[in-house]
Amino acid sequence: MLNKPLQARTWRFQRPGDVDVLELENLPLDEPAQGEVLIQMKTIGLNRADVMFRRGTYIEKAEFPSRLGYEGAGVVVSTGEGVEHFSPGDHVSILPSSSLARFGTCADKLVLPASLLVHKPVNLSWEQSSSIWMQYLTAYGGIIHAAGLKKGETLLVTAASSSVGLAAIQIAQSAGARVIASTLTVEKKQHLLALGVDDVISSEDEPDLYQAIVSRLGGEHLNAAFDAVGGPQVEQIAKAMAVRGRLVIHGALSPEATPFPLKIALRRSLTIRGFLFLEVLHEAIIREKAIRFILRGIEAGYLKPQLDKIFNFGQMQEAHRYLESNQQIGKIIVRVDTP
């Protein structure tokens, strides 16, 4: 009896746009080739990059029809030749790749290179295992690798209620740094305070970020900043930096242009740089160091992903709509309804 050809229910889109461009399709799926692994997906983690990619505003541009999705977790079904560290039945998490379009995780089955997989942490649920790698790799790379944050220093984290923002707070606290978090609304500020963040600025009731920082520090001495927003507030952050401060920008949530604060940077010898998570993944030594750091933190319990809301696989449009509403505190997860 011939084996039934593999198919995967896969979310794709044919043009940039709103959530209604997302379509669920049945696509043929090849058996894993050399170095590849076939995975039955359990959960998918959503990121702000998914929305920007769908809308055509991300650093990677889609080639249509395009898949999407950076993260997920599932069970190994089969492996191709040469795969040594994974076997059928293994529980795995997916590392973010260099291409949403090529390796998009929004499907119920995936064939991926084994290099994109790590064994699922045993103390995490499927949902939590879909919400660790993008946020913790980005946060570790931005504040430990790029900013060189040290014990006793002060760090500003913007967009602090996002999954990456929460990850940055946890990592900075574990490093012995003082954290000042900024977020949009008073409601999100209250959520962050409830999670144990001591210093939180809400732009809703403190619109001048520079003054809000200075009032908490009693002067201008941020040692580092991890900014997801960009735009005009970059100049306000730079004004609050100490001499030889490090400002790492990892996102562009602001629709406005981002000025370069040249005179401030010159006077205070500031380092201002962009950062993308791929910087960590593409350098083998840094990658392994980051993965060990994250797994150690998860096992010890001081790194713990915060989940916001869970959707079913057929609700991908609704999940994206909720992500765009900017209501979430932490990670949005899609649960795959496996047969």
Relevant terms:
single chain, 339 residues, 6-stranded parallel β-sheet, 12 helices, globular
Task: Summarize it.
The chain is of the alpha/beta class. It has helices spanning 48-55, 100-103, 126-129, 133-146, 163-174, 186-194, 209-217, 233-239, 262-268, 278-281, 284-300, 316-325; strands at 7-13, 22-28, 36-45, 66-67, 72-79, 91-94, 109-113, 117-119, 154-157, 178-183, 199-202, 222-227, 241-249, 271-274, 307-312, 331-335.
Question: Mind sketching the topology for me?
Answer:
Elements: E1 7-13, E2 22-28, E3 36-45, H1 48-55, E4 66-67, E5 72-79, E6 91-94, H2 100-103, E7 109-113, E8 117-119, H3 126-129, H4 133-146, E9 154-157, H5 163-174, E10 178-183, H6 186-194, E11 199-202, H7 209-217, E12 222-227, H8 233-239, E13 241-249, H9 262-268, E14 271-274, H10 278-281, H11 284-300, E15 307-312, H12 316-325, E16 331-335
Parallel strand pairs: 9-10, 9-12, 10-11, 12-13, 13-14, 15-16
Antiparallel strand pairs: 1-2, 1-4, 3-5, 3-7, 3-16, 5-6, 6-8
Helix pairs in contact: 4-5, 4-11
Structural write-up:
The protein is an alpha/beta fold and 339 residues long. It has helices spanning 48-55, 100-103, 126-129, 133-146, 163-174, 186-194, 209-217, 233-239, 262-268, 278-281, 284-300, 316-325; strands at residues 7-13, 22-28, 36-45, 66-67, 72-79, 91-94, 109-113, 117-119, 154-157, 178-183, 199-202, 222-227, 241-249, 271-274, 307-312, 331-335. Strands 3, 5, 6, 7, 8, 15 and 16 form a 7-stranded mixed sheet that branches. A 6-stranded parallel sheet has the order 11-10-9-12-13-14, sandwiched between helices. Helix 4 (133-146) crosses helix 5 (163-174). The longest helix has 17 residues, at 284-300. The mean pLDDT is 94.
